[in-house]
Amino acid sequence: MRKAFKITLFAFVMLAASVFVFWDAPRNAVAMIIEKDTITQTAHAYFKAEMNKDFPRVYALLAPSSDYKKKHTYEDFLKDISQYPPAEINTYEIIRIHRLRDNDNRENYPAVEKFVQVEVEVTFTTSGPNNVYNYSFTFLKEKGNWYKG
Predict the structure, then answer these.
(1) How far apart are alpha carbons 40 and 29 in whole angstroms?
(2) Could you tell me if residue 14 is inside a domain?
(3) Could you read off the pLDDT of 39-74 as tens digits, one per residue?
(4) How many domains does the chain have?
(5) Which of 64, 92, 121, 132 is most buried as measured by Cβ atoms within 10 A of its Cβ?
(6) With the C-alpha atoms ordered 70, 74, 75, 77, is the resulting torsion angle positive or negative?
(7) Are 133 and 123 in contact (CB under 8 A)?
């Protein structure tokens, strides 16, 4: 009886482990629990830097693998924002962090480990407090750090 129980228990553990390893949904759900605080901190850091016009910090929080950062130095970035100033954020609220997933496009983004969506409601200084805009931003993880995509 004990031997049959041990075999059954071993089979169940192996089945559960293989589901966890090979099926993205439960693995990403656990990863979201582990990563959510860090993602939230990175998103807050990015939006606060935007609000405070802390351009060195904004540029530092852009993903190294992003098409923009690959082609533009910090000096290029400063020129771009002086020619085309971004809308000034008055308030923002992170509404939801969702859709954490592995990188399935390693060919184009070999350094990216994971992607996640950060849904944010924003008001701009020029739009008034009653004009709330909802955006979904992609953040990504590279070399263990989260960045705005």
Answers:
(1) 16
(2) no
(3) 999 999 999 999 999 999 999 999 999 989 999 999
(4) 1
(5) 92
(6) positive
(7) yes
Q: What is the pLDDT of residue 20?
A: 46
**Amino acid at residue number 39:** I
Residue 22 zone, left/alpha/beta (φ > 0; ψ -120 to 50; rest):
alpha
Q: How far apart are CA 97 and CA 85, in angstroms?
A: 27
Greater model confidence, 80 or 23: 80
Residues ≥6 apart with Cβ < 8 Å to 63? 69, 112, 140, 142, 147, 148, 149
Q: Which two tokens stand for residue 134?
A: 């909802």
Q: pLDDT tens-digit profile of 76-106? A: 999 999 999 999 999 999 999 999 999 999 9
CB 123 within 8 A of CB 132: yes
User: What Å distances lie between residue 129 and 15, 63, 143, CA to CA?
Assistant: 53, 30, 38
Cα separation, 133 vs 149, in Å, equals 19
Q: Which amino acid is at 73?
A: T
Domain with 96 in it: 24-148
CATH code, domain carrying 130: 3.10.450.50
Instruction: Please give the share of the chain, as a percent, with pLDDT higher than 90.
Output: 72
